[in-house]
Amino acid sequence: MYRAAAIVIALVAALHLYIAWFEIFAWTTRGPVVFSSFPEDLFEPTIALAANQGIYNAFLAAGLIWSLLIRDTTWRINVGACFLIFVAIAGIFGAITVSPRIMVVQTLPAAVGLVLLVLASRRKA
Predict the structure, then answer these.
(1) Is the pTM of this model over 0.85?
(2) CA 53/CA 15 separation, integer angstroms
(3) First-to-final CA distance of the chain
(4) Residue 82: which of 66, 100, 98 has the closest Cα?
């Protein structure tokens, strides 16, 4: 069961690396494609704000990747769960404040990962 959780964690981490990349490095080119409802004339003036968001997404990805590298099973599950909860909360906030689509893209995969981690931890016990 942990293997399935690890796959989901890796996918969520990859998603957040992608989000970090376009927020930090491609906000004016990729940003308008991802956030089509955001007024196009605001992408240029918000480059610094997007880059700041990108750093936070990079930290979420780093925490998820770190959880995959931890050898101790209990710590691996706890750290993975912690960062998946961070992702889920960020997704809920984004869904409320930006677009409901964020709930599906960000919160749903994190929730699936959390369920798989809980199942893995129960199997371990």
Answers:
(1) yes
(2) 14
(3) 13
(4) 66
